[in-house]
Amino acid sequence: MIRKLLKPQLLTFLALFGLVVLSSALADEIPYEGLKKCKGCHKSQFQSWRQTAHGNAFESLQAGVKEEAKVKAGLDPEQDYTEDKDCVGCHVTGFGVEGGYEIDDPSKYTINVGCESCHGPGSEYRRLHRKAADKYEKTKETTPRQILADAGEEYEFIERCKSCHMNYKGSPWPGVAEPYTPFTPEVDPKYTFDFDQDIRDKEAMHEHFKMEGMFTGPPLPPFHEEFQNAAKPISKE
Ligand code: HEC
Ligand code: HEC
Ligand code: HEC
Ligand code: HEC
Description:
By secondary structure, the chain is mainly α. It has one domain (18-229): Flavocytochrome C3, Chain A (Flavocytochrome C3, Chain A, domain 2), CATH 1.10.1130. Helices cover 34% and strands 2% of the residues. The chain contains eleven helices and two strands; from the N terminus they run αααααααβαααβα. A two-stranded parallel ribbon has the order 1-2. It starts with 7 loop residues before the first helix and ends in an 8-residue tail after the last helix. The structure holds heme C (4 copies). One heme C is lined by residues 33, 37-38, 41-42, 115-116, 119, 122, 126, 129-130, 133, 145, 148, 211-215.
């Protein structure tokens, strides 16, 4: 439906980069909202996320934090980088786009690499989560997952990860553009991004919790079943 609005040349151009990029380009026109609403309904994931590297990413920009890593990457460990536009973008949620983090008007709901950095801008799909939950509670009827994807919810993840992790000078990632991350595989091989390994990293990713199954059908990422099989029960408080 939205695709009809695009000029054919643009569509061909986008098609060259594959549907993943096309769908995330469209998704990014939906405003970000921050995690205020998400955290109320997903307390378990929120509490787990707060303990992760992504949930604390902004702190790394403060003076005197991670000094050794900064020196190794040629940065000044005494400098405060929390208002530096060349740094902030990958350490917050939705920088430079509608509803996302702003240096001049920082919000505690978009600080750090939050829910929407991975799951996509949530102002539309989060309403569908509520509707589906109401319907399920009343009738036990499920909702097709496809409507969430159409409302901007991300199911591939990889391009979003790469837009921060693979965005360095000389990177093989086709989307590369300034500002770059200073933490490249050349600085230390440990900064090499490996999607299949990193998506399972317990220091960086929130824990997984068993879902009731209100949403059904495609799209689902290939690791979904593995994560749900090992998932914990949701804590009710
Ligand atoms: C908005 C930018 C952004 C996005 C999107 C993002 N990350 Fe990160 N990630 C970071 C930053 C910044 C850190 C470092 C946090 C810190 O220590 O300050 C990090 C840290 C990590 C780490 C721990 C360090 C390491 O490399 O071992 C892993 C693993 C990781 N991310 C995986 C992922 C995966 C997988 C995805 C996609 C599902 C993803 N990230 C999406 C910015 C991002
Ligand atoms: C293009 C995205 C991007 C930009 C721009 C960016 N970073 Fe990061 N930063 C990351 C990612 C991704 C990681 C996680 C790397 C990893 O551990 O694999 C990270 C990690 C870090 C770390 C932790 C490194 C460690 O070993 O624990 C610090 C400190 C940091 N960044 C500071 C900065 C500063 C200061 C700037 C600006 C000069 C900056 N970043 C700009 C993406 C970015
Ligand atoms: C660094 C990326 C990343 C961030 C940040 C992130 N998630 Fe997730 N999340 C994932 C991945 C990957 C899955 C697994 C998807 C699957 O199994 O289909 C997931 C799964 C989920 C699920 C499904 C149930 C489960 O536990 O697996 C919910 C709900 C969820 N996330 C909510 C959140 C909320 C709320 C936040 C913010 C507080 C958040 N996520 C932040 C990557 C992320
Ligand atoms: C009104 C409550 C509510 C809000 C607000 C909400 N969600 Fe959900 N969300 C749910 C429910 C209920 C489910 C279905 C869980 C199940 O089946 O167990 C769900 C499912 C999910 C899933 C899994 C989707 C799938 O395909 O299975 C993710 C990821 C998720 N939410 C992330 C978020 C994020 C990120 C936000 C904020 C932008 C958010 N949610 C806001 C209630 C909510």
